[in-house]
Structure formats: structure tokens, C-alpha cells
Amino acid sequence: MKEKLIPMAICYDFDGTLSPGNMQEYGFIKKLGLTPEAFWEQSNALAKAKKADDILAYMKVIIDESRKRNLPITREDFMAYGESVKFYKGVETWFERINAYALSQGVKIDHYIISSGLREMVEGSKIAKHFTEIFASSFLYDDDGAAVWPAIVLNYTSKTQYMFRINKGCLDITDTEGVNRHIDKSCRPMPFENMVYIGDGSTDIPCMAMLNKAGGHTLAVYKNGRKEHATALNRDGRAHMVAPADYSENKPIDRFIKAVIDKIAADSRLKRLK
Fold it and tell me: Is residue 1 part of a domain?
């Protein structure tokens, strides 16, 4: 009888993890007539002045500035901007390569985005098709299709909710009962030990800390020449490994994930023998 494939999940932050910079800076901010520096300065000032969540503040600035200029922004607009998002070296071929390696070891990988960025832009990106689910901030739209209000907001603490959703197989974000329902660890479809979280910054710390305690695997990536913050995550016990943001074959990220795949496969087979 053929062995059942072993489930595994890789969860990614987006900005700074798969893509350099912030996704909003790929053409969208320019349409509003702002520089990235001016946009984030305005957003951060609003959050500080009103004691508001940083993510809600930048989403309000998007709506306010588009209304001020009479430039309603639709879901299709956000997706179109998402098409121009650039990725780190190796990202666009990463998913098929790592999936193939996993299958050769009897492991099936599901890929997930858990990001404070905009879901609509990730959905419009070149790599969207590779994700089982994209958990990210998003807007509500009026009858004319224009963004009018935040629908979902992911900040550094709320991100952990989605780790539990994956763990419990409760991917429908409208299902608030299911994600809080008690499910024995042995009955959860995606064990935490079979999960990886890849991130680059402070908003990823709660997910990393939670997954480490649960027996999962964490990786902090960094741009060339900007290793200090990622190293601090490793030194403080938040990330198991630090690596430059290069997803090419045989680079540190590739080797780390393949080692995790090997471990998950070996642990699963050992359990079956016992």
C-alpha cells in the first residue's frame, strides 16, 4: 500500500521576505502623487497622533489620499500594481523546485502568506498561484468597486491567529468558532512540528516565538548588507537560522528547508515504526 504523503506548511511574510521593500511602493504610491518617504511619514504620524494601529493608519492614508485626488482605487487596481512587484533572486522558481524535492521525500508542502501588506496586491503578483491561502490585510469596496474601509487587518500579534488556522485546518477567515474550537494535537491536520515560518522583521517575532515553542522551524532572512536585525532574531532565540534573501538552489535558504523536509520525513516514519 502506498504511503500517505506527509503534510508540511511553509508560511511566509511578504515585504522584505520574498520581495525587497514594501509592496505599496511598486507604482501605487506614485499614483497618489507621493514619494514612499512622504507616504510612510504621513502614515506613521497619523498612527502616533491618534494612537492608532500602524496597519490601520496606512490603510486610512490610502483611502484618504485617493479620495482627495478623486482617484478611487479598486481591487483590480491593486492587483494590477501587484503584477509589478519584484522578488528576491530565486523566488519565482522556488515553489516548484522545493515542492519537487519534498515529494521525492514523501512530503507535500502547502505554502501560505501571512502578511501585513495588501492581499489584493499579493493576489495580483506573479507568485500568487503557488499559495494555498493568502492571509493579509484587505479592503471593503463600495458598489462602484472603490476601496472604502479596511476589511481585514494583520498586525504583528494577529498574525499568530493564522498559524493556528493552518494548524487546525480552519482556513476560512469568517469561521471564528472553528479556530477557537479545542482539537487534540494528534488530530490537527498540520502539526506545528511540520511548519516553517520565514520572515525578516519585528512583525514576525510573535509567529516565530510561538512556532519555536510548539516545535516548528523558523528562519530570518535579510537583504545583502543588512544582517544585524536578522542576527538579533537568531541571538534572541526568535529564529533558528539566519540567511541572505536568496532562494536559489543550494543557497542557505534552500539547504535549510531541504534539511527541515528531511527531518519531517524521518520523524514521521519513525513514529510509524513505533
Answer: no
State residue 1's pLDDT score: 46
Q: Which helix (H) or strand (E) holds 63?
A: helix 54-68
Helices then strands (H, E): number in the chain? 11, 7
pLDDT at residue number 46:
96
Is the full-model pTM beyond 0.90?
Answer: yes
Residue 100: which H helix or E strand, with range? helix 91-104
68 with 113, same domain: the answer is no
pLDDT tens digits for 62-89? Answer: 999 999 999 889 999 999 999 999 999 9
DSSP 266: H
What is d(CA 54, CA 12) in angstroms, rounded to the nearest whole number?
20
Reference 216, options 237, 234, 191, 199; nearest CA is 191
Question: How far apart, in whole angstroms, are the C-alpha atoms of residue 94 and residue 272?
Answer: 30
Q: Are residues 210 and 262 in the same domain?
A: yes
Q: Could you list the residue range(s) of the whole structural domain that residue 250 is in?
A: 6-22+86-273
Cell 501588506, located at residue: 117
The helix or strand, by DSSP H or E, that contains position 11, with its residue range, turns out to be: strand 6-12
